[in-house]
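Ticket reopened. Same input as before:
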Amino acid sequence: MKKYTVINTPVHNIDGIAKITGRAKYTFDITLPRMLQGKILRSSYSHAEILNIDTSKAERLRGVKTVLTGKDTLGKKQGIWRRFKELCDEEILARDKVRYIGEPVATVAAIDEDTAEEALDLIEVEYKPLPGVFEPLEAIKEGAPQLHEHAERNINVTRHIEWGDVDGGFQKADYVREDWFRCSSQAHACMETHCAVADYTPEGKLTVYTSSQSHYYIKVLLAEILGLRENDVRVISRYTGGGFGSKFELDSAQFCSSLLSMKLCLPVKIVLTREEEFTATKRRTPMFYYVRSGVKKDGTFLAKEARVFTEGGAYTAMGATALYLTGFFQSFPYVWPSYRYDGYRVYTNTAPTSAMRGFGAPQATFCAETQIDLIADELGMDPIEIRRKNGMYPNYEVPGQATIQSCGLDQCLDKIDKWIKSRGKLPPHRGIGIAAYGFMSGGIFNWFDTPYAFSSAVIQINIDGKVDLFVGSQDMGQGSNTTMAIICAEELGVKLEDIRLHMGDTENCPVDLGAWGSRETLMQGNAVKMAAAKAKQQILEFATAKLAPNIVYDLDIKDGWIHLIARPERGLSFYDIVKEAIRGKDGQPIIARGHYTPHRKGMISPAYSFGVQAIEADVDPDTGKITLKNCVTAHDCGQVINRLGVEGQLEGAIAMAAGYGFTEDLPMDEGKILNPNLVDYMLLRATEMPETEVMEVETYEPEGPFGAKEAGEGLTNPTAGALSNAVFHATGISIKNLPITPEKVFNALKEKKKK
Amino acid sequence: MKKKLLHLTVNEEYYELYISPKKLLVEILRDELGLTGTKRACNTGACGACTVLLDGAAVKSCSILAMQADGAKVTTVEGLADGAELTPLQQSFLDHGAFQCGFCTSGMLMSATAFLREDPAPKNIKEGIQGNICRCTGYNSILRAIKAVAEGKYKEEGR
Amino acid sequence: MSYQCPVCEKIWPDTMELARHVFGVGDQAHKDWVNSKGVNFIELLLLQTMEPGNKGYKILAEILDREAKKVD
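Engineering reply: fixed in the latest deploy. New output:
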């Protein structure tokens, strides 16, 4: 494969020095002169009418500057699916009704946190409790309490995907099986909780520092809900302490701090406590899945139908996207001649469910991969072989949905097959389970209803050769800052240290939709590459004129050296040419723009990553406890751009996805989350991580910059399925109910012994 | 509550501060001294993001009242590098990409610094950062970075 | 003997397959037809999706056996 100068080399993260010396200032660290501290009063009822709120006692407390409620807002409902008004159903600061425990009802600004907390206790809210409903399968029944006036039977959104002759396919099948699965919720548990510092000044301008995955979305949503001009709002998000899907929608910290600041013309900071982070921010969508598959006795897939009811929580949020993606990725990464999916998202009186890394695909992949191993077992087939027989391949068209261009699935299966064989005979109570997966590299659908290109970039080349690169993308730890700098340096032909990146400020960065759906590398990367190519073109004009070579020679730039490609020793320095170019441009530096919006790329994404993961795990027959020994992943992300970034994303995804598979859960009692802290919420610690191995499979994706595609989210898809399959092969029991806790394994083993 | 006088050496600078005795050490470091490198990410002493060195030992600064550290020497992440000269551990973190969002990084560095000072050739590195939660990296890059230093790949005098 | 869908007139070899079709299409017309027969489309779907045993399909299949046109 082509060797690059900067791409796929282990360059340091360009934010590295700031982060390891403690210099990086997160929103959590921002203080402004005269800044007040804000706090939010939240509903302790899961479903209630708000009859009255008396803030007088709180207002009189010494040190309290103001207390606001829903009545002090414009009463607008907002939602991120702006194109569909009926899905914009959330006020954030509730006016008449609360629909989940934790919904904001009032907000306070005071001189310090203690005073603000004390003020919360003095606010008197008169509620009229209403009956609540907490499970989607209960909420959809006749007579269940209705959360929203417009949603009969609490049905929020439905989705349908179908191709081929499903019923005919089942008729031809030699073997049909149906299974029921329950996929749990999960908390993002970012290390930096949601927070914002809002600063409204008398000119009518609002600046909000916030921990965000999309400063553009936050700017627009804030402007709308506050009745401000879109560009009188400035959102700054230079460093974000984790996102994972939780930070691209408008949240209570941003909204309440802005409201308070607008009232007082003083900066107000709101930082959510860890408990609020668990109870009152959005979370992974729990799903109740029915999956039926029909196959031939040689393992050929014929027909699949899937039906899901998802627990929507109190508001839509990004739930509509999760509902579509789970249905689409339920068929991934295989060729199903016929497929039918019906999804129903149901409102419940619980914290809203929304986007979390994988976006419905981890749930779908868990169901699909668990079932495939059960089918393989029935047919006496090897799990690798049944997947190889039916796997997607380059240029496959998913009927009516997507064109798969690059696809390294087969090579991934090869690598995992080889690794499994190298493990030899396993000790007792140990099993290896695999799961195949794929994921999108950014979405094509404009549900936000933006008129802007999905990604844009601007480049300015200064007289000393330093390149200013302006991007709209957001780095929340996944490394997009470094990735964009790498792409720019490679395309322009300069060194990484020549790039000075500007991001995270809506006032001086171009628009990009943000870091979600694993879109930055492909979409922002394409925009950066385009801008760099245009800038390079301008440089080469001057260089060519100066060098005056025979017309048959073309030029390129590598590592700061502009040269004839056929005779690289003939050339001149980029840094010298830049000085001259400026004179030829009326004293103006070279500037170039790039952008990217997917056109005619199917229903979901321009490109898809692929992979296969294997988990080797021990299952203790006496306790049901699972210990992860090894986790090996063969991943096809096209061309690796940011090597340390991709490796980091893979290992991080394993930890998060393994947690989803067997340790993390959000148990609730009538809408009240029972473990809202980092002691009782069991995410993986260093001592629980298995040995991990990353095997890169390189393909070339025509849609992506230098052939690159996503490498951040897809890796979260396979682990729960690979884990359930490892347990199946170790013990013969199949757990279809996440998380796979020791209790479930123990009870299932007991049941098995009885039979 | 009457304020008390706190005597504290932080990163080799001596401070005398009048503070409320209710204040936690982490609050003094961040809010009074502006050393925001040390973070807070939970209210239950569970996550380790607030780890600093207190007289050489790694402690969770959210679990200590500032007055309990009266007269002590504290090192925060800002006190690791000497100007532009990073410690071997910091350099190793850079080389191994042992951070992503960076919010847990200060705590990780302080825990690992104390751990390696105690035992420069440790057998079980995982235990050294067991008290630090990271949601981004999956820990393995951090373990590789610490291991490289423990194996002497970053030989340096007097650190 | 085959069965004809009362809504869109597609032919199916037996009542279970016809039931699957009615659920699968799931548009307003098919939903309305089911709801007019003394049962509820959503309730039957819930039964089918919640637990093993094909309950939802079986109930609908019985109704279709009575109501659907039989074709040779």
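The CA atoms of residues 48 and 459 of chain A lie 53 Å apart. Chain A is about 30% helix and 25% strand. Please confirm and we'll close it.
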